[in-house]
Design brief:
68% helix, 2 strands, single chain, 130 residues, mainly alpha, 4 helices, two-stranded antiparallel ribbon
Length: 130
């Protein structure tokens, strides 16, 4: 038997290093970094989907899609909900298609900016895992 094994058998310190138990401890920093990283990813996806719905609405409107179509109505309803204060940001120009382009296009850009800022902030709050 080696001296180390024999010594640990006598003192009852098998698996210990320097008198401290070695165990798989919970690392809060790693948990926090993963949690905030996951939250940042979810926020980025939600904001990106909102911007995509607004962009599709602009595309369908400018292309002259049938407003009675169920898919067009679905996208338009969600776009109106997601446009918030941008619905009437620009005064009604002569062309209603231009109004949709300006107002809903601005809302889509805003969603993308919010996505980037919120994602970065959440990742900063999470800190580093290493």
């Amino acid at each position: 038997m080696s001296d180390e094994v024999a010594g640990s058998a006598r003192t009852g310190r098998a698996g210990r290093s320097g008198g401290h138990r070695l165990r798989g401890g919970f690392e809060f920093a790693v948990f926090r970094a993963r949690l905030f990283g996951t939250l940042a990813t979810v926020v980025r996806w939600v904001c990106t989907v909102a911007a995509a719905l607004l962009a599709v609405h602009v595309l369908l409107t400018v292309a002259g899609a049938n407003p009675a179509n169920a898919l067009v109505r679905f996208v338009a309803d969600w776009a109106e909900t997601l446009a918030f204060g941008f619905r009437d940001l620009f005064v009604k120009p002569r062309a209603p298609k231009l109004q949709v382009l300006l107002n809903h296009g601005s809302a889509a850009v805003c969603w993308l900016l919010v996505s980037a800022a919120a994602g970065r902030l959440l990742r900063l709050l999470g800190g580093r895992a290493g």
